[in-house]
Structure formats: C-alpha cells, structure tokens
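Q: Got a minute? One more chain.
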Amino acid sequence: MIALAPLRARLTPLATLIAVAVACAAGSAQAAGGGGTGLEGARGVTSGGAALGGLAPTRAPAGAIPGPPAKSARGTWLRGVTITEYWPAPESWFVGRLVKAPGLPGEHRIDWLYSAMGLSMEGEGIGLDGRMYHINALGDGGWVTAAGVATSPADDWSSGSPFWRAGGYWRDRSGAVTFPLQAGGWSAGRGRAYVPLPGVTFAAGGAPRLHFYQSIAVDPRVIPLGSRVYVPAYRNDGHGGWFLAQDTGGAIDGRHIDVYRSPPASPSDSGHYMTGKQIFVIRPHG
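A: Always. Here it is, folded:
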C-alpha cells in the first residue's frame, strides 16, 4: 500500500464520486432497457455479494485500550490539523459488468478495477466475496478524464479530474470513456473501440501492515513514518485514539492526516472531515 499511496490523490471524497457514478450508470442502464431502476436496481443485479461496507472495524481487547499521553510523554502537540478518512473500495458499490481481471481468478466489476474510484486509485478494495484485493502492477499509461483526455497528478490534474486509467475502457462515438453495465447497456453511450491497458495486474489480499482505526496516512515531512500519533477526536474508537503513521498519499500535504477505516455503510457517506484539530506526535527513535 505504501508504494501505491501516491495514487490516492483524491480531489473529491471517494464516496461522493462513487455515488454520482452509480446514479449516472443506473440511469444509463434504465434508459438502455437493461433493467436498472435507480440506485437499488443497479446494486441488485448481483446476489450473495458482500454487504455494503463489507468489513467491521477492529477493536482492542477489553482492558487493553491505552489512555491519552501523559504530561511527561516525549512528544509534540501539533495544532491546526485537518483529519479525513479513507477505506478499501467495496466492489458492491460499483455497477460495471463483471470482467476477467489479470492476476485474479473469476470476474470483477470493470469500474471497480479501473476507475478513479476503485482499486486503481485506492490501491485496495473489498470484493463481492468479502475478501480483500489490491492492484499489483499499474501497467502502461496514466489516467484520463471522463472525456478520454490524458490527465496527470504531475501538473495537478490540469486537464481535468481523473476518471479512469488510460486503458481498460471503451470509447464512445465522441471519444469519451464508456463501459458496459452489469444491468445492461453502457455508462455513457455504446462503446465503439476498446482501449487496452498492457501490463496491469491485480492480486488477492490487502495491505498487511494497515489496520482499521489504527493506521493513518501522513505527510512524512511533517509526521515521520513510524510515529505514534494520538488523535483526541478518535479517543472512543476502540483503540484509545492512538494510531501509527504507516501510509502516505498525494493529497496528504502538510498538517493533514488520513485515518484508515472500514468502509461506511453507504457510498453517499464520505466519512469524517475535520479541521483545526490537535494531535500528539511521538516520533520514532533513531
């Protein structure tokens, strides 16, 4: 996950993007006669998948929850901190057709694999079977906008927000990105030409070092990786508000931490967003 973390440069909360994409795709499916009837219809095409959210938060054993830092603790209070949250992308939130995925058995939803809301951006996700999966190799090419125009984080996405990897999709009549829906039809007009993405692979499993409500992503220039961090706003999370700085991200800049958590119950829930908070940072020795 740490190697993939720079991809997680979200310009808009992940859940908000997914909610918009799902609603649009569901409407396209209905218009195409594919049986989608709004959000519920789009989600209802697959039975037996993992429930929204998929995995429950981990909890510390009874009696093992640490308290806040002592006054004599060797650390530093950092004020004016922005706190956001991120989570593995649940495949059950997506509406694309099931397709073969390089490196994985079976089939998975195409937008979960390649879109800017799924594995390719988030790095890992929860499959319909409730198991964790991650992107193993990014393959050739970067990102494109919904219009199919190349865009890059190197210039702050100056050509537009990322919508899809630079492959793994179809172009419609105007050259824009489109993909087949599980409910039938297409997300944005019938596909005319498929654009491959050579070299991309996926694999089973998630980031082994990251744990829900225990790991955070940081800007290592401000909070070194390996630091223990106390976040008073999370003191009732089951772990006493203590986290380990284990991840980074392109959107994590300055006094900003990103809390790794289990997915919320709905894609319309973008998680907590807090500003002006204070945290206590204990830097690693050596």
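A: Helices lie at 14-31, 38-43, 110-114, 119-122.
Q: Perfect, thanks.
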